[in-house]
Write a structure and sequence with these properties.
four-stranded antiparallel β-sheet; 180 residues; alpha+beta; Alpha-Beta Plaits; DUF1697; DUF1697 domain-containing protein
Length: 180
């Protein structure tokens, strides 16, 4: 059986949108999800593929979180194979060598044509770099994420799609959990 991975946006950040991982696992299990496992407290959930398209699964996960915890957050869901494709397609291998400074910003749909990062001058963010992939933006901040204008812009800008970032270590761990 395949796996799906839910990436919840903005939970357990700065004391807001508190969702305990044990409670999240129980809430999803109670709603029929099988093999539910979480990774760290930032809303990473791996579970058996329920046989629904990831977009429909995201809606079910969002509804479960809102019903159970009173927290309204977005979720991006990918299949195990889609996460593997993100890893395989990485256009910034130098970023992967510094996984704590390298992000995958997962988008719930294709990046809109007028998205700020499609029209921005990438040189304005140097030495930080980004590349747009298939419903993902790869973001490498060699000077660190905390001082990066690029990382801040990806976390603070509104898009026409749900977006949530994970560092490369987390992406690789989620793939490992989906495989294991």
């Amino acid at each position: 059986m395949g796996k799906q991975i839910a990436l919840l946006r903005g939970i357990n950040v700065g004391g807001r949108n508190k969702v305990p991982m044990a409670g999240l696992r129980a809430a999803l299990t109670d709603r029929g999800f099988g093999g539910v496992a979480t990774y760290v407290a930032s809303g990473n959930v791996v579970f058996d593929d329920p046989g629904t398209p990831p977009e429909k699964t995201a809606e079910a996960v969002e509804a479960a979180v809102e019903e159970e915890f009173g927290v309204r957050v977005g979720a991006v869901v990918r299949t195990r194979d889609e996460i593997a494709a993100v890893v395989a397609a990485n256009p910034l291998p130098e970023g992967a060598a510094e996984p704590a400074r390298f992000l995958a910003v997962f988008l719930s749909g294709p990046a809109p044509a007028d998205a700020w990062f499609r029209t921005a001058d990438p040189a304005a963010y140097a030495p930080d770099r980004y590349e747009i992939g298939d419903r993902v933006v790869y973001v490498w901040c060699p000077g660190g994420l905390g001082r990066s204008k690029l990382a801040a812009d990806f976390s603070g800008r509104k898009l026409a799609v749900t977006a949530t970032a994970r560092n490369w270590n987390t992406v690789l761990k989620l793939l490992e959990l989906a495989d294991g």
